[in-house]
Amino acid sequence: MIPAVGEVRVIEKLLLKLRVRDEVSAEEARILRESIDEVRTVPADTTIVRASQHLSASTLLLGGLMCRYKDLRDGSRQIAELQIAGDFVDLHGFTLKRLDHSVMALSECRIATVPHDRLRRITEERPHLTRLLWLLTILDAAIHREWLVSLGQRSSAARMANLFCELHVRLSVVELTDDLEYDLDLTQEDLANCLGITAVHANRTLKALRDRGLVDFHNRRVRIIDLAGLREIAEFDPTYLQLNREPR
Amino acid sequence: MIPAVGEVRVIEKLLLKLRVRDEVSAEEARILRESIDEVRTVPADTTIVRASQHLSASTLLLGGLMCRYKDLRDGSRQIAELQIAGDFVDLHGFTLKRLDHSVMALSECRIATVPHDRLRRITEERPHLTRLLWLLTILDAAIHREWLVSLGQRSSAARMANLFCELHVRLSVVELTDDLEYDLDLTQEDLANCLGITAVHANRTLKALRDRGLVDFHNRRVRIIDLAGLREIAEFDPTYLQLNREPR
DNA sequence: CGATACATTGAACTATTTCAATAGGGGTGG
DNA sequence: CCACCCCTATTGAAATAGTTCAATGTATCG
Q: Which of B51, B96, B242 sits opposite A96 (nearest CB)?
C-alpha cells in the first residue's frame, strides 16, 4: 500500500536512513512527518527540479529511483548521484534556494513535498533535528567525493563495481535489497552517465564483470554473484556512507 | 601582519565569503570570531586531518592552500577540492565526526581551530548562523558536483580551464586575485591529482592552453590571458558558486 | 505487425597513459 | 664554491583504455 500524507509510514525509509546514524526521538519523527505537505506520484523521465529554478519546498523520495544531473552543451550528461527511497533529493535547495543541477525521476516515483518554511522552523526550534538534516546533505557530499575518486582514478570496471557496492549498501539500509540482489531501474545509458563512460563501453564493462563472475545486471535487476570479489576490484570501503551511530 | 586569536581580522576572509551569499550581523561575526580556539601555522605537505580519525574541532583556513584528498591502494591520489583562505576545511567533520577523506596543506598555511562544542552551541542558539555554516558545506557539495561533471564529461583541457576559472572566482571573492592573475601553490602533479590525469598529461595540457593563448601557469602563478576564451572552452558557468545574496 | 527503445558486437580511431630519458633550479654538505 | 641530489618540469615514442560510428539483435507494446 502506498502511504498517504500524515500516515506514519510516509517517512519510514527516511527514519531507517536516519536511525542508522543517530537516534531519532518519537517527537522528532512526528515533526518530520507533520512537515510533509503533499504526497504524489511522478512518472518516469520527469525532471522535477530544473537547475537554477527558485525553490520553496524540498522533496523527499518515498519510492522509486531519481538522479541529480547536469547536462552539457554537446548533449552529454553527468549524473552526480542516484537517489533512493528515504533520500531528500533537493535538500541542498533549502540553503541554496537555487540548485546548480537538475533532478529527475528515472522510474515512476512516489514523492513527498516539504515546504521550506517548515524546514526553517525546524532550524529555529529543533537543533538536533537540524543537525540530522544537515548530516543528510553532508552524506551527499561524501558520496560525491567517492564518485570523484571513481571518475578520476578508477578503471571503468572498478567504477561500475563501486557503484553496485554503494547501492547495495544504501538500499539495504532502507530494506530494499533481497540479500545480494536489488532492483535498479537504469538503462545502460543512465549507468554510463553515472560513470562518465559511453553506453557502448558500459555494455562491454557489464559483460566483463559478468564474465568474471562478479555481478550481473539484467532486466533492471542487479545480482551480485561474488560480493567479496566485487568489493575487492572496486576497492570499496563503506566508511564514507557513515553507517555508524554517533551522537550528532 | 598575521592575525592572532581574538583579532577581528582572523575571520576576515570567512566574512567576505559569507557576505557574498547573505547578510552577517555584527553579532554573528562576533560569535564566529569568539568561537575560535587557537591560531597556528602548519608547514607545507602536512596532513592535518586523516581519514576516519575522530574529530572534536573544525579548521578554518586563514591563509595558504589546502586540499581534501583520498588515496588508493596503488598509490594514486584524487584531490576532491582545493581549499583557500576563508574555507572551513573540515566542517563536514562536525556532523560526520569522522571524515571519509584526508585534508592536507599544499603550502604553508595559517589555520584557526573551532571546537565542535562551540559549533554545537551555535546550532542550539543561532539558527541563522547555523544555516550559514550549513550553506558552506552545501557549497562544497556544489563544487564536488562541478568537478564530477569535469571528470566525467570534459576533455583534459576543458577540465583544467574549469579549475582555473573556479579558482579565479573563488579567490576574487576573498580578494586574493590580482585582476586576471593569482598565486596557486600547486605542482603539476597536484594539478593532475585534481583533474584525474597524469602529471605528464597535465604538463602537455598546460602547454596546449598556453599555446592557445588562454592561460599560463608558471612558477606557481596563474595568469589568465583570455578570460572569455578560457570560460568558453571550459563551458564555465559560475552559478554553482552561488555568488548571489539571498536570505538563507 | 510495425514501431520504438534498449542491448550487443565489430572495427577504426583518439585521448591519455606509461615508460624512459633529459633538463633546470635550489639547497646542502664537503 | 663546487658537486651532488632531489624535486619538478619537459619531451618522445609505444601501448592501452575508452570512444565513435555503424550494423544487428531482441523485447515490448499499441
A: B242
Nearest to B96 among A77, A138, A154 (CB): A138
**C-alpha to C-alpha distance for B66 and B78, rounded to whole angstroms:** 14
Q: pLDDT per residue over B82-125, tens digit each? A: 999 999 999 999 999 999 999 999 999 999 999 999 999 999 99
Kindly determine whether residue B96 and residue A135, on different chains, have CB atoms separated by under 8 Å: yes
CA B155 – CA B159 distance, rounded (Å): 6
Residue of A nearest to B73 (CA): A235
For every residue of A163-193, DSSP letters joined together read: HHHHHHHHHHHTT--BTTEEE----HHHHHH
> How far, in Å, is the CA of B78 from the C1' of nucleotide C7?
33
pLDDT at position A1 = 46
- By C-alpha distance, the chain A residue nearest B98 is A242
What 3 state SS string does B29-86 have? HHHHHHCCCEEEEECCCCEEECCCCECCEEEEEEECCEEEEEECCCCCEEEEEEECCC
Strands A102-105 and A46-49: antiparallel
Q: 10 Å Cβ neighbour count for A245? A: 11
Q: Cell 544555516 appears where? A: B131
> Are residues A185 and A65 in contact, defined by beta-carbon separation less than 8 angstroms?
yes
DSSP assigned state of A98: B
Task: Give, to the nearest 10 degrees, the angle between helix A199-211 and helix A156-173.
Answer: 80
Cα A196 to Cα A31, A65, B44, B140, B155, distances in angstroms: 39, 19, 33, 21, 12
Strands A181-183 and A102-105, sheet pairing: unpaired
pTM score, whole prediction: 0.96
